[in-house]
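> example.struct
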């Protein structure tokens, strides 16, 4: 009886070990390789992180926002925005209500403060004042009522690569002045890079800031 019991236990353990090895190979090696291969063949761009390349060099991802700032000066803790480029939603400096302060992909999230929170109210007021100041030019004055919500609040993730068409258009006069372009050319640039609702009814119209700035760079080259 003892030998039979030991033999049965050995057969069960061997069967379990074989099942473990087979499932490890199938689920841990073959399945991931198959999924990766199919993704690379069918959707190579998305499978590789939706990278955006310029002249063969990766400059970012169309799914993750980034900053367009001037180099930090001695004594500065926060870099000032480089106003010759279209600016993204706040995730840096005035107006941010995000735990992500530099569009860092290591950290994502928001602080979820209530509408009557004093810190949030101060952030929004300061951000609105900064947006008005930065985007007003000699020939164009931004009014407080012109500033959309996404210009003064960060997204839930703090990584949103898009801004609203309204915020992009608010920046047109400043971009035209800083880059010595006509307002009409910059306005057309924004219109050409405005994506509509998905399937015509899902989400809101949006502008990808990275793609817009790449197009702006090409325009200034010409």
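> example.seq
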């Amino acid at each position: 009886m003892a030998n039979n019991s030991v033999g049965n236990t050995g057969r069960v353990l061997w069967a379990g070990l074989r099942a473990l090895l087979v499932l490890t190979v199938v689920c841990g090696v073959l399945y991931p390789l198959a999924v990766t291969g199919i993704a690379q063949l069918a959707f190579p761009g998305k499978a590789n992180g939706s990278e955006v390349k310029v002249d063969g060099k990766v400059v970012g991802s169309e799914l993750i926002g980034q900053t367009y700032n001037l180099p930090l000066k001695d004594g500065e803790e926060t870099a000032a925005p480089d106003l010759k480029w279209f600016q993204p939603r706040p995730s840096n400096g005035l107006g941010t209500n995000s735990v992500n302060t530099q569009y860092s992909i290591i950290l994502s999230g928001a602080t979820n403060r209530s509408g009557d929170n004093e810190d949030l109210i101060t952030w929004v007021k300061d951000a609105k004042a900064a947006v008005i100041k930065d985007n007003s030019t000699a020939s164009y004055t931004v009014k407080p009522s012109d500033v959309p919500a996404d210009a003064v609040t960060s997204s839930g993730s703090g990584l949103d690569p898009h801004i609203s068409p309204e915020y992009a258009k608010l920046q047109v006069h400043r971009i035209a002045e800083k880059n010595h372009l006509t307002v009409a050319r910059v306005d057309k640039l924004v219109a050409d890079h405005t994506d509509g609702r998905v399937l015509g009814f899902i989400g809101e119209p949006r502008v990808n800031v990275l793609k817009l700035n790449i197009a702006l760079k090409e325009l200034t080259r010409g």
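> remarks
Residues 180 and 220 are 8 Å apart (CA to CA).
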